[in-house]
Design a protein that fits this description.
The complex is a heterotrimer of chains A (269), B (333) and C (288).
Chain A: H1 22-39, H2 42-67, H3 72-102, H4 104-109, H5 117-144, H6 152-180, H7 183-199, H8 215-220, H9 222-235, H10 240-266
Chain B: H1 14-17, E1 23-32, E2 35-45, E3 50-54, H2 61-68, E4 76-81, E5 84-85, H3 90-96, E6 97-100, H4 112-122, H5 127-140, H6 156-167, E7 174-178, H7 186-201, E8 205-210, H8 213-219, E9 222-227, E10 230-235, H9 237-243, E11 248-253, H10 259-266, H11 272-275, E12 284-287, H12 292-305, E13 309-315, H13 319-327
Parallel strand pairs in B: 3-8, 3-9, 6-7, 7-8
Antiparallel strand pairs in B: 1-2, 1-4, 4-5, 9-10, 11-12, 11-13
Helix pairs in contact in B: 4-5, 4-6
Chain C: H1 34-54, H2 56-85, H3 90-119, H4 121-127, H5 132-158, H6 169-196, H7 200-215, H8 228-236, H9 238-250, H10 256-287
The chains are: A mainly alpha (269), B alpha/beta (333), C mainly alpha (288).
Chain lengths: 269, 333, 288
């Protein structure tokens, strides 16, 4: 294979007019992530992981919960949905870390690209993945007996809220990824919090199962509140009194994570 | 600390060419906490010229390039690239430059072709135009057969080519090449050199960071030497080499006792200072102002005198020699 | 030229400066001999233990993670399961988490192996007069020791949560060696898979499998809590056998049968995966 340099005269011949636009750039960046997800199997993982989580949570505990008089399929699905959103968060964090590590993020900063575009494209690609996962998760829920009994509007609210939680978590994880530049350490660091917030939650088992001293934490931590809200939406019991705590948590986390993610993505050392 | 020393006239030919320099750096300072990476660095690069930036590790080369490509903001001083100030018009700078680093930054998951297309679209080409441009560049850089493979499977030379090609999807005005041939085999290296010359002929300004004097020598119109955050020497390659004493010819006679006879045979090739110090030496070093021609002449004279040689070689000053000569310490601390 | 007399010190040639060190000559035994295999295994074992001890992420993954998970299982599910089954759940959960610690450690070790391969260390070892089998056996020995340590730590964490050791010291020794037994079989399998395949894909797949198995064994909830069609699978998977044996050795109950099943699983896994592991090691050294 010869390694000749391009002929000087033809290097930039016939180059059409150049018009950088943030929208086109966002489309290009988002598109490539989604295409990689679709072709390299990540979307398949996004569909299969909720199955594993559903099966792993539901089958062993169904009997134990029945003894306590709970329909576990209906009870546990919100937390399964949130766990699925957590998985998206994790993979987004790793993508951000990987691209910061390889220097692609830095390179994009030397090009005439809008400063928020790379972050937005990662979040939007994460959203695509979340939607796919969510659809799969609700599907598995239906298989084990979960039902939306509150009408179309509340079912849509369920999906919207779940995706909103996913986005907020993803923003935080993206910031962490951009800052640490270490995909491996990131997955280790995030596994434990996901486990703790996911299991020490009244969305996973009812409050009465917890020892008394843990109950305040288990009841009030954000994931529990989110699960509670999702459960209300699924059952059609949405009410302001029951939801405002969730919204406060969601809003608070968004206020914390959004500027952090923007700063981490845009900053130049 | 030696201040900026220009070997040739200070203007370095600017006045004669006229017009704005493509890159103008004026007393830039940058510190990271206690580390003073740049301590008042000043230089300029003419349009359509190649400026070589030499310096050991930690000298501030990469920091300088990062400031010029708007990755870092200078603490003080001004830097203007293609007419845009890096502080007040950084977006303008980004529209005019192309930067490649040592660690060719690409999307690892995409193929070469997809990377080129992506960069084309990011720089403002429409989708179909970007695709066409990608194919053109693949051909230009001889990557057609590998275009479909993911870049993570490319060899070092191929990665570098794709990396540079990605920066040329649209026409930049200034190109920053940060150690572009480190780790490449000689053929790939020659390919990069040809490319730099091609860019220059297109009217594009190239700033080339390197550790290899030979590379700066072959490619640059002008060279600046950076150490500890300032420019310590400036000039063409020949001027710099002349400062270090230039090439020299090393002669080792087979019989050590014949050194005096060797000196005599070489006649005027041996400067008086060297001739005075041959006591006890087992080899002789003479300056070789004409390079290989001097070597050939020396061989002729020695052959005529019938002196057998164990070794004769033409040695060029290395970067270390340049540094030792200019700074008084070795480049690689 | 100097003549080489293998029984004397090798004289450096005249022209080498007098400051050159005199290289010692070693009369080594053939690299295939048993005593060499033994010595080199110990050396490799020590090397790996030092590497693991110095790496904080290994410590976190193999100790902190199981300990915190045990705490969580006990807090979140302990009372529910105890109420539903009548047996204190801590015994099953503690046993489960010692196995999880062993399995996580095996995966961490496999990742380390991949890194060694990528760095070229493996190939270098293969060009030295090292006993080749010692690379594998040394690693297994290190794994066994690591599992022993993590098991003791997890069980000690279980004590304030209600776990009680039996009084007989022999029983307790048997108790802490059950995870070692299980872990060895698992480690051989993971090593074989890690040496054969290239990608990180496989390791993540094993990670997912681990997580799945963590929920489908007799340590998480008792067998009868699972749907009837799953009960046979759950009861006989290798983790369950080990857990049942440990339950018998700590809380009380049948020991011989689950112990025999555990041994059978271990022997089986080694029998199936030992040869591929050995071959895989060799191939990995040659191709890196």
């Amino acid at each position: 294979m010869s390694v000749s340099a391009p002929a000087a005269s033809t290097l930039f011949a016939e180059l059409p007019e150049v018009r950088p636009s943030s929208f086109a750039q966002w489309r290009a960046l988002t598109g490539r992530i989604v295409r990689t997800m679709a072709t390299k199997g990540e979307l398949v993982v996004a569909v299969l992981t909720p199955l594993v989580v559903t099966v792993a949570f539901y089958l062993p505990l169904r009997y134990v919960m029945k003894v306590q008089g709970i329909d576990y399929a209906q009870y546990v699905m919100p937390i399964v949905v949130l766990q699925t959103m957590a998985m998206t968060m994790m993979s987004n964090a790793q993508l951000a870390a990987f691209e910061a590590l390889t220097g692609l993020s830095t390179r994009l900063q030397t090009m005439p690209i809008g400063s928020l575009v790379p972050l937005m494209s990662r979040i939007c690609a994460g959203l695509v993945r979340s939607v796919v996962s969510l659809i799969a998760t609700v599907g598995y829920g239906y298989l084990i007996g979960f039902r939306f009994t509150g009408g179309w509007l509340q079912a849509l609210a369920f999906c919207g809220f779940a995706l909103a939680v996913g986005i907020v978590l993803t923003l935080g994880a993206d910031a962490l990824g951009s800052l640490t530049k270490n995909p491996e350490a990131l997955s280790q660091a995030l596994t434990l919090p996901i486990l703790i917030f996911g299991m020490m939650s009244t969305g996973f088992v009812p409050e009465a199962s917890f020892p008394a001293w843990v109950r305040p934490f288990a009841r009030n931590q954000p994931i529990s509140q989110f699960a509670h809200t999702l459960s209300d939406m699924a059952a059609g019991h949405l009410s302001w009194a029951g939801t405002w705590v969730s919204l406060v948590w969601l809003g608070g986390l968004a206020i914390l994570f959004l500027p952090l993610a923007v700063w981490a993505s845009v900053r130049r050392s | 600390m030696p201040s900026s020393i220009s070997v040739d006239s200070p203007a370095g030919g600017v006045a004669s060419r006229g017009g704005e320099p493509a890159v103008l750096v004026s007393d830039v300072r940058k510190s990271f906490g206690d580390v003073h990476a740049l301590q008042g660095i000043s230089f300029q690069a003419e349009k359509a010229s190649v400026l070589g930036i030499l310096g050991p590790n930690g000298a501030g080369k990469t920091t300088t390039v990062k400031i010029l490509s708007t990755l870092l903001r200078p603490d003080s001083g001004t830097a203007v690239v293609a007419g845009h100030d890096v502080l007040t018009d950084s977006a303008g700078v980004r529209r005019s430059i192309m930067m490649t680093g040592q660690y060719a930054a690409l999307d690892e998951n995409l193929s070469g072709r997809e990377n080129l297309e992506l960069f084309g679209r990011l720089m403002g080409l429409a989708k179909s135009a970007a695709r066409k441009r990608a194919d053109t560049l693949l051909e230009e850089f001889d990557l057609v057969s590998a275009g479909k493979r993911a870049v993570r499977n490319y060899s070092g030379g191929m990665r570098r080519r794709v990396d540079i090609a990605c920066g040329l999807v649209v026409r930049p005005e200034v190109v920053f090449l940060d150690e572009p041939t480190t780790g490449l085999d000689p053929r790939s290296r020659q390919g990069v050199w040809d490319l730099v010359t091609a860019l220059k002929n297109q009217g594009i300004t190239v700033l080339l960071t390197t550790q290899y004097l030979e590379e700066a020598d072959v490619l640059s119109d002008n060279i600046i030497v950076i150490d500890k955050g300032t420019v310590i020497a400036e000039g063409t390659a020949d001027q710099l080499k002349a400062r270090t004493g230039g090439s020299f010819c090393e002669i080792v006679p087979l019989d050590v006792s014949r050194i005096p006879a060797t000196v005599q045979a070489l006649g005027d090739l041996v400067p008086a200072a060297v001739a005075a110090e041959i006591d006890g030496a087992d080899k002789l070093s003479i300056p070789a102002p004409e390079g290989a021609a001097t070597l050939a002449e020396a061989l002729r004279r020695l052959d005529n005198a019938g002196i057998d040689l164990a070794d004769i070689a033409l040695r060029r000053p290395s970067l270390d020699d340049v540094f030792l000569s200019i700074t008084g310490h070795s480049g690689g601390h | 030229m100097t003549t080489m007399d293998t029984t004397e010190r090798i004289q450096p040639p005249e022209s080498v400066a007098a400051t050159a060190a005199e290289l010692p000559v070693v009369h080594a035994k053939p690299e295939g001999s048993v005593s060499v295999w033994f010595t080199h295994s110990l050396i490799q074992c020590k090397r790996l233990l030092m590497v693991w001890l110095r790496d904080p992420s290994t410590t976190i993954q193999t100790i902190a993670y199981p300990a915190v998970t045990l705490l969580m299982f006990r807090i979140v599910l302990g009372d529910s399961i105890t109420a539903a089954t009548g047996i204190p759940s801590i015994y099953g959960q503690a046993a489960l988490l010692t196995l999880v610690a062993a399995m996580t450690g095996a995966v961490v070790s496999a990742l380390g192996f991949k890194r060694e391969k990528a760095a070229g260390l493996l190939s270098r070892f293969y060009t030295m007069p090292l006993n080749k089998a010692s690379l594998l056996t040394g690693r297994l020995l290190a794994e066994a020791l690591r599992i022993l340590i993590t098991t003791i730590i997890v069980l000690l964490v279980a004590v304030p949560l209600g776990f009680l050791f039996m009084e007989d010291p022999l029983t307790n020794i048997a108790l802490i060696f059950v995870p070692v037994l299980f872990g060895l079989g698992f480690a051989v399998m993971v090593t074989a898979l890690a040496t054969i395949t290239e990608g990180v894909m496989l390791i993540s797949l094993i990670g997912i499998l681990n997580t799945l198995l963590m929920f489908f064994n007799t340590g998480f909830v008792p067998v009868f809590a699972y749907p009837t069609w799953l009960q046979d699978v759950v009861a006989n998977q290798p983790m369950s056998c080990a857990i049942d044996a440990m339950k018998g050795l700590s809380y009380g109950g049948p020991v011989a049968e689950p112990l025999l099943k555990t041994v059978a699983w271990t022997v089986g896994m080694i029998a199936v995966f030992a040869y591929p592991a050995i071959v895989g090691y060799k191939k990995a050294a040659e191709t890196s």
